[in-house]
Amino acid sequence: MKKQELYKYIDDNSEQYLNISHKVWEFAELSLKEFKSAALYLDELEKQGFEIEKNLGNIPTAFSGSFTQGPKPGTAGAGPVIGILGEFDALSGLSQQAGAIVCREPDDKDLAASQGGSGHGCGHNMLGAASFGAACAAMEYLKKTDTPGTVVFYGCPGEEGGASKAFLAREGEWKKLDAAITWHPGSMNEVTTGTSNSCTQVLYKFKGLAAHAAGNPFDGRSALDAVELMNIGCNYLREHMKKECSIHYAMIDGGGFSPNVVQPHASVLYMVRAIKVKDVKELQTRVDKLAEGAALMTGTTYERIFVDGTANPLPNTTLEKVIFSNLNEAPLPVYTEEEHQYAAALRKTWDGREVFPGLGALADKKIAAEIKELTNNNAKDLNDFVYPFYSGEEFTPGSTDVGDVSWLTPTVQFNAVTWPAGSPGHSWQNVSCGRTSIGDKGVIYAAKVLAGTAADLFTNTELLKQAKDEFNERTKDEKYLCPIEDDAVPFVIE
Ligand SMILES: [Zn+2]
Ligand SMILES: [Zn+2]
């Protein structure tokens, strides 16, 4: 089965994949609450003949669908096991009309009723749909060519919060794979390389005693004071931590709206970041001490709830090269005049403070010059080309639970164009574009790149061996340290 036939299979079935993307866009369910989206995927996987596993790692919306040609994994003559990762959670407060070029007012009534105010600002409706399409095409490939191998589609909930892949890493799920491949919607067609932050999130819920703020404040114990003192402590701590570390926080509960009450409850969610999980854990322990101190100072008590955590991604140059060749092999989307006009209009809604995008342009002057030319000096509305190949270990800020997968099996990601050039992350513009023909074209292109990559890995065992050798070399001196605490269970912040 040639790649062209694989692409044709995806084109012939594109309606099914786009239907998933559109439906999940409409569901716009928040992290770990993606019940409708998960049910849709399970239904579609079953129809395709995948073997379903639900409730992975005891997470209700985590699941997998696998198909094996030839002997089962772990038995004689079995082929490689390739995992294709899909995500499908949305973000709060970003609900938007499809194809809008003006931001919708957040108090729109029908918007609140129909979509709960959430939107796919990270494009995970497209992410899961393309990965699903690729899994179907990979299944077709194994059947048609009678190649021994297993393809597993992973439904990974809670990427924006919950880090299901890290919880599954704690359970050793990714060790079952010979490689994992995935992608992310974006504004460039490019291989993802380098690394990013490890992190943990911990919620501190303080409890005090309510009292009349003027009448008998001496009887009150303020949980809000505890949160404030914890934050002040943290501001002092910031001077005494390693440079590459950072600490962020959000007030989840300020107690109430009445200043005339000594607030009896207040909560703060902390996020600790560093490059290595080891440094995150060390710093997290010091942040824990701040909560203890704040409670002591205010005479309050507190509950510590571990929320989630992720590890820094480990690059794999071998797999990055396979992705790059597939980015070039698969036919690039061609955009209509109408699509260009929409992209240009959307682009006007943010100011153009962008530097030339991509890690390669930052690390390599030659690539920066090339990108300047390819983007017409950033004037292109839609980047209809493949970014020059670049592989490195440079760091970009941010965190993803794909990192946890990458410590247990050779893993690779890429970006495909689903948005206009320079579209801001987690934005209403991404929600708007994620259910237009531009987003659809990105889904189909990404499905082809993933399917082509899977086919290469199933067929060329030498390639997979090289990827594994590289993985073993990179993990020789440093083993995976799971950021998820031993007794932690997935936690939904309401
Ligand atoms: Zn995101
Ligand atoms: Zn994302």
Walk me through what this model shows.
The protein has 494 residues and is α/β, with parallel strands linked by helices. 40% of the residues lie in helices and 16% in strands. The protein has helices spanning 3-12, 14-27, 35-48, 109-115, 124-145, 164-170, 223-237, 277-298, 317-329, 337-347, 359-363, 365-374, 402-406, 428-433, 437-459, 461-474, and strands at 51-53, 63-69, 81-87, 149-156, 179-186, 190-191, 198-207, 246-253, 265-274, 301-310, 411-417. The strands form two sheets. The protein has a seven-stranded mixed sheet with strand order 1-2-4-3-5-11-6. It has a four-stranded antiparallel sheet with strand order 8-9-7-10. The longest helix is centred in the last third of the chain and has 23 residues, at 437-459. The protein starts with a helix and ends in a 20-residue tail after the last helix. 52% of the residues are buried. The model has no long low-confidence stretch (mean pLDDT 95). Bound molecules: zinc ion (2 copies). One zinc ion binds at residues 122, 160, 426.
